[in-house]
Every structure is written in C-alpha cells, then in structure tokens.
Amino acid sequence: KTISFLRQVYPELSVVQKCCGKPTKALGQVELLKSRFASLVRDIKDCQVDEMLVACQNCYNMLRESNEFQTASLWERLPSIGLPKEVRGKALGSDVVFSIHDSCPVRDNSGIHDGIRWVMNELGYKCVEPERTRGNARCCGFGGMIVPANPTLAKKIMDRRVGEMPTQHIVVYCAACRSSMLMGGGKAWHILDLIFGPVVTKSSMPPE
Questions:
Q1: What is the value of pTM for the model shown?
Q2: How far is Cα 206 from Cα 178, in angstroms, rounded to an integer?
Q3: 111 FRET partner, CA 20 to 30 A, in 15, 60, 73, 100?
Q4: What is the mean pLDDT of the chain?
C-alpha cells in the first residue's frame, strides 16, 4: 500500500526490497558486508535512480555513509508530499494514547522525529513522549545484533525500554524496534500499520 501510494506521487518509482548488510556490519563480518552492500548498489544503479527514499533507519545511514546516492528518509518526506486523503484524521475518535519510541540509529536526526509526529497528528492519534526520547532515546534491545549475541541481556534491555513507556500502546518506525517492544511486553504498531491499517483502539491487538 505504501508503494502504491508513492507511485501516485512519483510515477517513475522503482522499488528495491533488499538488505543493505547492516546486520553483517554489526557482527564484524566485513567481507560479507562488502558483497551484500555491493549487490544492493548494483540493483539501485540498475534502476537509474535520482534519489533513494528509504523507510529503514539502518538503510538510511548505510546509504548516506556510502555517498553513492542522494538519500532521504520516507519520514522526512511525508510532511511535504502529504498522506492519502482517505487516511487523514481517521483516528480522531480513537481512545488510544500512543507512546513514541524513536529509533536509536537516527537519534541525531530531528527531521525524522518531526516527521513521525507529523504523521501521527495527521492521522488523529494522541501521543505522549517517554522521558528518554528523540535525541536521547534508548536502544530498543535489538541494536548491534545483541539478540543472537546475548539474548539474556537483550531481553533485559527490551523490558527496561517498554517499562519506560508512559502507555502500553507504542508506535515505532522500525521493524526490529516493533519486535523488541512486543518481546518486552508492550503493544506495538509500526507506523505504516497505523497509516494503511484499521484504526487502533484500546481493544485492538497488534499484528502478529
């Protein structure tokens, strides 16, 4: 649904759904990282893009660090292109108050933080901030591939982060963060589920 919407804005949109190799970087697998990232770069060049628009924060950082392509975050771009007309204000009647968990790889990018809050406001959802948010947001417990390396510590960090949330309903904009919030005992939705999915209420259960 995201791709379909973006094609209305950018008719010549190409789509690449492929890992950038960041997990291999976190594990120190340097040669594997080189081959995976090179494969992604080849695919992107094959699409002859003017700009990469990414929804993943790790991909955003990897592509910007490479200087191969002009790169922007979907969350920075949505305030300028707008949301589909049919979803604006759809959640004004919802009884949920969402806590916002920010992705730690983009702690220093206020444009992404602002974009996420703009989307939530456009949808009509009420939101609150945890004490550690935006530029000082804590890791969700998935960073640095800690889950396979030290699952016990990872679970401890997940539980701590969920415990910091003012409400049990949590909005995230990263797939790994959503997994962490769920494993930490929270009720977590990816923001794309909120945009294109049904309106969430207190009785709603997050997607499995």
A1: 0.95
A2: 10
A3: 15
A4: 96
| Whole-number percent of the chain with pLDDT over 90 | 95
Give 102's DSSP letter.
-
Q: Distance between CA atoms of 27 and 1, rounded to whole angstroms?
A: 33
Q: What is the pLDDT of residues 152-161, one digit of tens each?
A: 999 999 999 9
Strand partners, 187: 169
List helix spans (H) across 15-107. Answer: 22-26, 30-46, 57-66, 74-81
Residue in this structure with the two tokens 């002859």, named with its chain if needed: 48
Asked if 166 and 128 count as a contact pair (C-beta separation under 8 A), the reply is yes
Q: Which long-range contacts (CB under 8 A, 24 or more apart) does 194-197 make?
A: 194/91, 194/119, 194/120, 194/123, 194/125, 195/2, 195/83, 195/84, 195/87, 195/119, 195/123, 196/1, 196/2, 196/5, 196/87
For the chain, the first-to-last Cα distance in angstroms comes to: 19
Cα dihedral 65, 42, 19, 144 sign: negative
Beta-sheet strands, E only, within the chain: 52-54, 71-73, 97-100, 126-128, 169-172, 187-190
Q: Which helix or strand (DSSP H or E) is residue 183 part of?
A: helix 175-183
Q: Is the pLDDT assigned to residue 125 strictly greater than 90?
A: yes
Closest-CA residue to 56 (of 17, 13, 6, 5): 17
